[in-house]
Amino acid sequence: MKKETLAVHAGYEPDPTTKAVAVPIYQTTAYAFDNTQHGADLFDLKVEGNIYSRIMNPTTNVLEQRVAALEGGLASLALASGQAASTNAILTIAEAGDNFITTSTLYGGTYNLFAHTFPQIGIEARFAAPDDIDGMAAMIDDRTKAIYCESLGNPAGNVVDLEALADMAHAHGVPVIVDNTVPSPYLNNPFKWGCDIIVHSLTKYLAGHGTIIGGAIVDSGKFDWAANKERFKRLNEPDVSYHGVVYTEALGEAAYIGRARVVPLRNMGAALSAHTSFLALQGIETLPLRMDRICENAQTVAENLQAHDQVEWVRYAGLSDSPYKALADKYMDGRASGILSFGIKGGIASATKFIDALNLITRLVNIGDAKSLACHPASTTHRQLSPEELATTGVSDDLVRLSIGIEHIDDIMEDINQALAAAKK
Ligand SMILES: *Cc1c(COP(=O)(O)O)cnc(C)c1O
After folding, report:
1. Are 224 and 305 part of one and the same domain?
2. Test site for ligand 1: of 81, 83, 111, most ligand atoms within 8 A of the Cβ
3. Are residues 143 and 210 located together in one domain of the fold?
4. Which range has the worst mean pLDDT, 35-39, 133-137, 374-378, 383-387?
């Protein structure tokens, strides 16, 4: 089925006992065992079934199936936030002494996690320029567990050449983990280009209404973890924390996503609540409709800004003169999602005046809402970064980030134009 249909139906048929057509919210902590043998069999993974809602929940299960279907993946794991998804995606395969390689154009929270928190637990993130695939290849050693990137950088707006990256990584026996939050599965499907694991912030376009915090990891099921038993030893050696299971033997192609559930999720506990899963499912139903409108609106805003005499530069991969236009055409059919950034003449002072003058567009730190949003990353999301770090993540002082919503384009443009006029005063 096509994405428009999957977004509404994947993972759910009317509940056989209640005939509920909307996905029920299973607001329960635990699930009854028929007898002690049933409980033991569940724990031994001999029979399928629910045990405890930190590890699995029927509402969340529908969400997981729906996200996996939209990405064309084998299975997914929902988590409490996008940050939990990127954290757990790495921790499923990496531990103290290991490293991974990442593009430097990252969401600010991810940058902080990789640059500062992972090193504190002995995992090194090696940063590379997003277009420097040879440079990334040169950083790989026998403790490298993955290559990480954002398919469409937030807020840098760069598009990563996923196919070239996956080819290079696989030649070295290393998987590619892609944060696909900004394009959403509607615009880009990294598995189609050979990438192996996807992480999402459900908070953004997927849930789509600025109402929740959530995340997901999706597994393509295609990466051969058993091909290098030493590099991926946690998937290939008996796991004492889960009664000696060898994930590649017990779960086959689901080894990675299975361990992600029974080790980082079960032991560290970043579970998504059933109610939040329900809200994410509600949002996903209209993902294709929203993204169509959002891309159309954002393209118009980008073109209008580019033609405005107060605007110094505009970064949006949908613009014909963007250095990422060809990659946007290849991976997203030319549709560059709803995030764009621009610099106003007059630098940080004008940027501040512009943001303060907005009436319709909300000042906040979020993206991917149905509502249009504006923020100044250098003073908010990327505030903790040093000037050098700001440069490598693609954030300058004068950068204003817009997340364009689904309102009527005339109202969006009117607000932007009046705020630009106010910024000149
Ligand atoms: C927001 C965001 C995250 C983090 O997601 P949360 O749900 O806020 O934890 C990760 N990656 C990208 C690209 C984001 O925009």
Report:
1. no
2. 83
3. yes
4. 383-387
